[in-house]
Amino acid sequence: MLNIYISGALTGIEELVEIKAFYEAIGALCKKIEMQAYVPHLNTDPINHPNVTPRQVFELDKYQVSQSDLVIAYIGFASLGVGMELAYADTNSTPIVLLYEKNKHISRFPRGIPSTISEIQFIDYEDALMQLKIVLEEWKVQQLKQLTPPYSA
Q1: Where do the domains of the chain lie, and which CATH numbers do they carry?
Q2: Cα dihedral sign, 49-74-137-145
Q3: pTM, entire model
Q4: Model confidence over 71-95: pLDDT tens digits?
C-alpha cells in the first residue's frame, strides 16, 4: 500500500478546527483511493497530545516523511515545520503535491522544489479535494505500473 504524509501548519492558525478537518479530509480521500495516510495532528497535536515532547514530534514526523511514497503539503500558511518536512521529502526524492488557495501569495522557494509533481491552486477545500483526487488517482496508476513486472511469454 502506498504511504502518504499529510503536511500542514498547526501552530498560530486562527481557523484551527477547519484546517484540521481539511487535513483529515485529505487523509480520508487517500484512504478512499486505497492509500495509507499519516495525518500528524492525529498523533501529536500540540493541544490534544501536550505530553509529546518537541524531540518526539521531530523524530516521529521525520521518520514518517522518510517512509512516505508521497507528501501532500498545504502551504497556505507559513510554517517552519512544513518547510522542514518538504526539505526532508526533497532530500529523499519523495514526490510532493503542494496545495494552496488561488488568492494567496506563496514563496517561490517551496514551489521550486524539484520533487514536486503537482501544484494545486484551489478556490475552497472542496475544490482542493476534487483536484487532489484526480492527481492522486493518476499518480497511483503510475506507481502501480512501475511495480508491475512486464509480462513475458
Answers
A1: 3-147 (3.40.50.450)
A2: negative
A3: 0.93
A4: 999 999 999 999 999 999 999 999 9
